[in-house]
Amino acid sequence: MSQELNDLAKKLLANGKIASPEALEIIRNRNLFDEVLKLEETIIKKSTLESLEKEKFKNEQKIEKESEKELKQETKLEEKPEEPKKEEVEIRRDRKKKVAEEHDVDFNIYNSEVKHVERKTSDFINYFNSRYELIQGMLMKRVNPISISNVKKTRNDEVSIIGMVYDIKTTASNNKIIELEDPTGKLSAMITQNSEGSLFEESENILKDEVLGVRGVFKNNYLFIRELIRPEIPITKEIKKLDVPLSCVFISDLHVGSVDFLEDTFKKFLKWLHSKEAENVKYILIAGDLVDGIGIYASQEEDLSIKSGKKQYEHTAELLKQIPEHIKIIVQPGNHDIVGNHEPQNTLKDTALSQLPNIVFGTNPCWVTLDKIKILMYHGYSYDNLIRELPSIRQKGYREPTLPMIEALKRRHLAPTYGSSLAIPEQKDYLVVEDIPDILHSGHLHTVGMDNYKNVLTINSGTFQGRTKFQEMLGHVPHPGIFVKVDMDTRKSRMVNLNNY
Ligand SMILES: [Fe+2]
Ligand SMILES: [Fe+2]
Fold it and tell me: For domain 140-229, is the CATH number 1.10.3720.10?
């Protein structure tokens, strides 16, 4: 991208807009910058601009007629200024309740069970069996499998199995061997580099420990794979809406206590919550990393402005107290929070945040429901691993933080590879995406993004921490001070950029 386009992209980002490379060129070539700023959309694509150009053309044609009309109206007003009707004056005098105070919905939170007791070998077996069974149940609708122990006995030309990936190897002749296992045994499956279509390319994106369906032909002790079937999100999923005009605000990664915590920007957020624009805000969801923590990485102390964990939460509580009480604040921990970083993580109920009357504590992960709308909150620690391991998102994963979220949804698991999230083997695998969320909300990557994946709104809610030395070293550019607001009655979503306030 040229420097000019780079500068344009930065200018747009500073105004809360993210444009695709194609769209950037059109904006520059056709001088559409001012028009783009007026758009409600945050993500600007080529298609958005085509309709914008048509609109611009129509507007230009109308200019003459409208000027005439305005002139007539002005003359009329000068002749006889209209007084406000009596009823309107009375309404204005009454202090109206905010929209969010007038409406309620059925709110629930469903937390993961967190025991964290000493583990035995049998716990690992139960944990993996639970993962296998839950995802097998999802795949059964699309795969008609036989058990691995029966593959060698079958006389069918083609067989389907459901297996958990035990290992992946590349042979000397550059074919992929995928070791699959189910409760009845193990099997070696192969994808050759001259497989049809994009199958070989897809084989690069198979993750250790993910559960998938495969269809293929068994020959010479190998199952030659013809198709990979992921549990996925069904295409038929509808967009659910609330009957009342309430909205949710999604934030994460405050990192209070870090020298890079942008307290002034966060105070702008608190101020914004008292504005007219925020009148329908009923819920604020915070997807972890409320504080920077203590001892999370080597020499962290040098990067802390508050060097006690307890005080970091006390200061966070002081700030969150300024949120109007009619707004519920739902908080879950992230890997910087001081509850241990094994997932599922426990809630933050033992911190100073419990003083707040409007706080609701969630585990990581947890589910929030607003009437029929289901929101899955997961901080996103495993996304680093997904970006590292998946060639399909390795280049763009940090800039487009919904990409790893979508990969997790396709696999119906928030941290497919064991160890990528410091998961602890409970009796049940709580990181399986058992139900289909309407919204998946995460943080951790410190960049902001929104996407619709098969009618699941994926939101990565950015940060309130400036660029850290570590991010500078890795070349990552965070998006501080931009958050997401979703009107739940219309499902209109947009990014609010506090850097413009
Ligand atoms: Fe973070
Ligand atoms: Fe994090």
Answer: no
